Amino acid sequence: MKNNRIIIVGSGIAGMAAAIRLQSIGYHVEIFEANSYAGGKLTAFKSNGYRFDMGPSLFTMPHLIEELFEIADKPIEDYFTYKRKSIICNYFFEDGTRFSAPSDKNAFAKSASNTFDVSEKTMLDYLFKSENKYELTASLFLENSLHKLSTYLSKDTIKALVRLPQLNINKNLSDYNSSIFKDPRLVQFYNRFATYNGSSPYKTPGIMSMIPHLEHSFGTYFPKGGMHQITKSLVQLAKDLGVKFTFNTKVEEIITKASKVTGIMTAKGFISSDIVISNADVVSSYRKLLRKQKAPERTLSQERSSSALIFYWGIKKTFPDLDLHNIFFSADYKNEFECIFKDQTISNDPTVYINISSKEESNDAPEGCENWFTMVNVPGNKGQDWDALIRQTRTNIIEKLNRVLKVDLNQLINYESIIDPRDIEKKTRSYQGSIYGAASHSKFSAFLRHPNFSSSIGNLFFCGGSVHPGGGIPLCLWSGKITADLIHKSSNS
């Protein structure tokens, strides 16, 4: 079966990770991409002397990238280099509090104790419990298929079930954080980790308190050349292994016969394949690519994760007195998430996330300038008046930043480009412009995500942020691994 041809629809990092793994062990893989570039949301653009990473701006768990080069037997340093950050993020609160979060656990606990109403012991205990949740559940929820019986017959699964009360699945993340911290700023600090999977801290279960462990134990990093270098390095590795990329070619349908995949249809006609992997959003996969097949309506009807409104600003000034690389300007989270997941509008005082890479890469901005990736969490595209929402949100953001930083941004912005949920939906075919597929608002959310394979169509598989195990760079890389493993096992059974 290794000589079989595999077609992957879409060139997101999950699809490329699957391609690299499968090509490395003897399969013939071809990736079809509707856009002229690879990477999905993980891409970049240049304009007016500025370079902007367009999508994810936080790089964690680099061992998942390293593993791909090890499998391919290629030296990673020939493709990709990165450095660990000593400060994870910088936080600015409305009351004037500023907090730099060190990567080192002990330094973090000490700094937090000096800034907030909390003891070092309480901070370290929280991180210990965060690590414990991860260690108990990673092999079940992240590293293997949740939809195969073999996953549940392992010792790790039994251990997780025995210690189920420690996972805090019966209370939401905000309630869990409030039960530990008296300081509302710390509750808000840890609530923001719900945004890592596009969910509300008032709905997502307390098990999500494991996410801080990823930052403190695995670290946060910045790639040389920016986040887009992740995509560029994986594309080059895949090509060097023999993976074929076909760009500017939209797949119109996944073709089946007798409940088994036979290939794909493009504008140029039918292309046969033994196995097809859809790296497209799962809703788009069924509504467009598999429209003749019965769709799993319960799965597709799940509430979508948040989307994003991003302002790419060129700033004709540098801020040497402020470390603005990866910063959060806090707001009223309760109001904000109610807006995102209930009212389908945008908070009048949104939390603002800014990433500036010009301090890491000198060619990211003209001399004396900075590039600002300025993002707010927003609801998905459901036909809102986005032009009006963007105008009002832009005003609110600038007023907020002027207030906190004591500047006049209107006089400093000399370049602007904007991406909203409509653009995300169009460019990446993510349903409603959702960044992470389905929202994780239930303790059963992980089980309700679409599996990495079809139970009704033979040799049809799925990978990416809208299927198991979820969105974000690490989970997408795991998704590609799970899918590749399932294909290899089924081919050899």
Q: Can you tag this structure with a few keywords?
A:
five-stranded parallel β-sheet, FAD/NAD(P)-binding domain, Guanine Nucleotide Dissociation Inhibitor, domain 1, 16 helices, alpha/beta, globular, single chain
Provide the residue-averaged pLDDT.
Answer: 92
Whole-number total of structural domains: 3
Rg over CA atoms, rounded to whole Å, is 22 Å
Q: Any low-confidence stretches, pLDDT <50, length ≥5?
A: none
Q: What is the fourth-level CATH superfamily of the largest domain?
A: FAD/NAD(P)-binding domain
CATH topology of the largest domain: FAD/NAD(P)-binding domain
Q: What is the name of the CATH class of the largest domain?
A: Alpha Beta
Count of β-strands: 20
Query: How would you sum up the global shape?
Result: globular
Strand order in the largest sheet: 8-7-16-17-18-15-19
- Helix-strand makeup class: alpha/beta
Largest sheet: 7 strands, mixed
Gap from first CA to last CA = 10 Å
What's the number of helices?
Answer: 16
From the 3D coordinates, which CATH architecture of the largest domain would you assign?
Answer: 3-Layer(bba) Sandwich
**How big a fraction of the residues is strand?**
15-25%
What percent of the residues sit in helical stretches (DSSP H or I)? 25-40%
General description of the model:
This protein is of the alpha/beta class. The chain folds into three domains: 5-83 and 225-301 and 443-491, 3-Layer(bba) Sandwich (FAD/NAD(P)-binding domain); 108-212, Guanine Nucleotide Dissociation Inhibitor, domain 1 (Orthogonal Bundle); 307-379 and 382-419, no CATH class. The protein has 16 helices and 20 strands. It has helices at residues 13-24, 63-72, 105-115, 120-142, 155-162, 173-180, 184-191, 211-217, 228-241, 282-289, 297-300, 333-343, 386-405, 421-428, 445-448, 473-491, and strands at 5-9, 28-32, 44-47, 50-53, 59-60, 82-84, 87-92, 98-102, 220-223, 244-246, 253-256, 261-266, 269-272, 275-278, 307-315, 327-329, 352-355, 370-378, 413-419, 460-462. Strands 8-7-16-17-18-15-19 form a seven-stranded mixed sheet. It has a five-stranded parallel sheet with strand order 10-2-1-14-20, covered by helices on one side. Strands 5-9-6 form a three-stranded antiparallel sheet. Strand 1, helix 1 (13-24) and strand 2 form a beta-alpha-beta unit. It is globular, with a radius of gyration of 22 Å. The model has no long low-confidence stretch (mean pLDDT 92).
